[in-house]
Specification:
Chorismate lyase; 31% helix
């Protein structure tokens, strides 16, 4: 199977992509080694390495030094904010919030590593919350979120300390529906959310924390939730590997 031309590495990447999508290389399985791929396609290892870098940047494979490349264990996750933030959805089967419910419904096992503490919020977060960035004025809920054993996002949530000090929001476990449901139970229901999302390269620290290559982009999402009076109740920043997420917008038109 000989492939010629200046875009040989892209043609090889397309062939491997097709094999992944057809199931010839199942999710979580190893690809042949670079020597074997070079023999298969009758090209040098530099060309194979470039093809694998394309597939890594697309999020189809994981490549680590000294081991064979593996197919990403999970497919992209569709994030439909309108659907996932309904109370029924985020509390489905006793789920601990929208993420827990969604990942479980997709057939994966959600897991969250969380640190909860009182904190001085970042300047941008403090501005949105209307609190001081120079004082301990917020409750921070800092999470690393998994589907099975794959890190899917870093999510840092901040809520105003003056509203939620000494409440369940300072506990690791918040109960069915998570933070949004508990806020409502405490008399502070969220009624409006604004989310701004941009794509960008990860910082070295983000790439390391997410276990991705620095050439793989992330989605940076700023989630701001308001009460009926217009006060900001929550600011969450999400850093998400771009290849793992499909951001879906759904709305009615009149």
């Amino acid at each position: 199977m000989e492939i010629r031309g200046t875009s040989a590495y892209r043609n090889i990447a397309d062939r491997i992509r097709a094999d992944i999508e057809s199931g010839a290389y199942p999710r979580g399985s190893e690809l042949p080694g670079q020597h074997e791929l070079a023999d298969l396609y009758k090209v040098n290892q530099t060309t194979i390495n470039r093809a694998l870098r394309v597939l890594t940047a697309c999020g189809l494979i994981q490549t680590r030094r000294g081991v064979r490349s593996t197919v990403m264990p999970i497919p992209p996750i569709v994030r439909n904010a309108a659907e996932r933030y309904s109370r029924a959805a985020r509390e489905r089967a006793g789920a601990a919030g929208a993420y827990d419910a969604q990942i479980t419904a997709l057939g994966h096992t959600p897991r969250v590593e969380i640190e909860v503490r009182r904190a001085k919020p970042p300047a941008r977060v403090a501005q949105l919350l209307g609190v001081s960035a120079q004082e301990v004025s917020a409750i921070a809920r800092l999470r690393v979120m998994y589907a099975d054993d794959v890190i899917t996002q870093l999510a840092d949530s901040y809520v105003p300390l003056d509203l939620f000090a000494d409440t369940v929001l300072e506990q690791v476990e918040e109960g069915p529906g998570g933070m949004v449901s508990r806020m409502a139970d405490l008399g502070h229901p969220q009624v409006r959310v604004v989310e701004d999302t941009v794509g960008r390269p990860p910082t070295p620290e983000e790439a390391h924390a997410l276990g991705i290559a620095e050439e793989q982009n992330v989605l940076y999402k700023e989630h701001v939730a308001y009460d009926a009076a217009g006060r900001v109740l929550e600011v969450t920043t999400h850093v998400m590997p771009q290849h793992l997420w499909i951001d879906r917008v759904e709305f009615q038109i009149d």
